[in-house]
Amino acid sequence: MSRGTCKLPSGGGYDVIRIDDLRCRTEAGLLQDEIGQKQEVIISLRLGCDVREAGKSDDVRDSVNYSDVSKDVINYVESTSFNLVEKLATDVARICIALYKVPWVQVLVHKPLVARFCNSVGVQIERTPDDFNDSVVYLSLGSNIHPRKNLKDAIAFLKKKVLVLKMSSPFLTPPQLQTNQPDIVNMAVQILTEMAPTQLKTFTLGIEKELLRVRDPNNKHGPCTIDIDISLWGSEVLEYGVIDIDKEEANHSSPYGHVIRTKNVPDPDVLRFAHVAVPLAEISPHLIHPTNGSTLSSIATDITGREDYANTFPIVELFR
């Protein structure tokens, strides 16, 4: 973005969109009486940008949509727990930079009435894209062995290393490639990660192992405690290698004797199966598939044959 006219405290010289006093309730603190208890945190943002085109066009697409920013920040903060407000502020900065491509952000987070003799305590930070190396990634999760427990546990494991920004509804879907098994609860999550694709896949395979997934090479599509696939890596088209723990046919072997399988992103299943496309479209209906060129909502509509694709499958209660 080009520089505008407003002088910031950092000397950035950008125009600034202000969002003041977002009020959220979340777990934030280390004290014994704070752990497990939601409390109010107040967040204010300054988003560096260039609003000159929006000033001429009167079109929100030429600016940063502060309503969307507010919703994404509130949704993330209220679905996550924190020990430190420093972590909360940094995560909010990452979201603003990764999702809204702002070149500069200032985040002020404070907790009111938590210490004696003061109105509030908090932290103020400034960040730019140079401070992070984040990718916006979409994962597809499925389970038909104790699915409520295993999906909740899988998301908890994900939150230890990535920012879970959005979660779809959990959809109860019929099995596709092997039909002689229970229905599967499928969902999608949007995450923010600094890991490379191979690192992320290795991490998700570790989650599957932790949740006791049994892989049978002779029954590849059978019931499982948890399955986690990388469906989309933003707008990128890429290949990456991962150790083939199923010991299926692979493209090549590493010098260390591991069988390496090549994986592709976008996952071809996004364009093949409704149980993959529908949860993704619920999260980001306007996201354009990087090879197909259609929005996720259009893909879900085409696969299901219905415009109300979100009603294709029943929704199960997961977080009760």
TrEMBL record:
Nucleotide-binding found in the keyword field: yes
Annotated SUPFAM superfamilies: 6-hydroxymethyl-7,8-dihydropterin pyrophosphokinase, HPPK, Tetrahydrobiopterin biosynthesis enzymes-like
Cofactor needs: Mg(2+)
UniProt GO molecular function: 2-amino-4-hydroxy-6-hydroxymethyldihydropteridine diphosphokinase activity; ATP binding; dihydroneopterin aldolase activity; dihydropteroate synthase activity; kinase activity; metal ion binding
Keyword hit for ATP-binding: yes
Gene Ontology cellular component annotations, sorted alphabetically: cytoplasm
Annotated metabolic or biological route of this protein: Cofactor biosynthesis; tetrahydrofolate biosynthesis; 2-amino-4-hydroxy-6-hydroxymethyl-7,8-dihydropteridine diphosphate from 7,8-dihydroneopterin triphosphate: step 3/4; Cofactor biosynthesis; tetrahydrofolate biosynthesis; 7,8-dihydrofolate from 2-amino-4-hydroxy-6-hydroxymethyl-7,8-dihydropteridine diphosphate and 4-aminobenzoate: step 1/2; Cofactor biosynthesis; tetrahydrofolate biosynthesis; 2-amino-4-hydroxy-6-hydroxymethyl-7,8-dihydropteridine diphosphate from 7,8-dihydroneopterin triphosphate: step 4/4
Reaction catalysed by this enzyme: 6-hydroxymethyl-7,8-dihydropterin + ATP = (7,8-dihydropterin-6-yl)methyl diphosphate + AMP + H(+); 7,8-dihydroneopterin = 6-hydroxymethyl-7,8-dihydropterin + glycolaldehyde; (7,8-dihydropterin-6-yl)methyl diphosphate + 4-aminobenzoate = 7,8-dihydropteroate + diphosphate
Cross-referenced InterPro entries: Dihydroneopterin_aldolase, FolB_dom, GTP-CH-I_C/QueF, Hppk, Hppk_sf
Signal peptide: none
Residue span, Dihydroneopterin aldolase/epimerase domain: 17-127
Swiss-Prot/TrEMBL GO biological process terms: folic acid biosynthetic process; tetrahydrofolate biosynthetic process
This enzyme's EC code(s): 2.5.1.15, 2.7.6.3, 4.1.2.25
Family affiliation: In the C-terminal section; belongs to the DHPS family.
Functional summary from the UniProt entry: Catalyzes three sequential steps of tetrahydrofolate biosynthesis.
Name of the molecule in the record: Folic acid synthesis protein FOL1
Organism: Branchiostoma belcheri
